[in-house]
Amino acid sequence: MPRGDKSAYTAKQRRQAEHIEESYESQGVPKKEAERRAWATENKMSGGGRKSGSGRGKTTSKRASQPKKSSTRTAASRSKKSASGKTASGSKKGASGKTSSGSRARKSTRGRK
Question: Can you tell me whether residue 55 is helix, strand or coil?
């Protein structure tokens, strides 16, 4: 089988690749590039061509063909530490579970003038 031969694909996989290709072409992508992208997308969704053997019937993933969602969370909300330097649990503890003496000394002088 020469490289790029599509005979190992099912009719459904060929149909899906054709629809994906048409979608890329409607977005203004050149025909050859659209075909390449369509087969790459189909390979990612289905795991490649038809395969024989038990346990090979995996469900297809539509995630590869759908656009990525942008994150609505800000960098501050993703951060584990709040503005005061404390973790979400409320205390600043190390691996041993005890508060470090260095942070205690800094806390006592903070805010005083």
Answer: coil
DSSP codes of every residue in 62-80:
-GGGSPPPPP-S-HHHH-S
Tell me: the pLDDT tens digits for 37-58?
999 998 888 877 776 665 666 6
Q: Quick one: angle between helices 11-26 and 31-46, nearest 10?
A: 130
Domains contained in the chain, number: 1
Report which of 17, 16, 35 is spatially closest to residue 25, judged by C-alpha positions.
Answer: 35
Judge contact between 42 and 20, C-beta under 8 A: yes
Q: 0.90 cut: is pTM over it?
A: no
Question: Could you tell me if residue 40 is inside a domain?
Answer: yes
**Is 91 within a domain?**
no
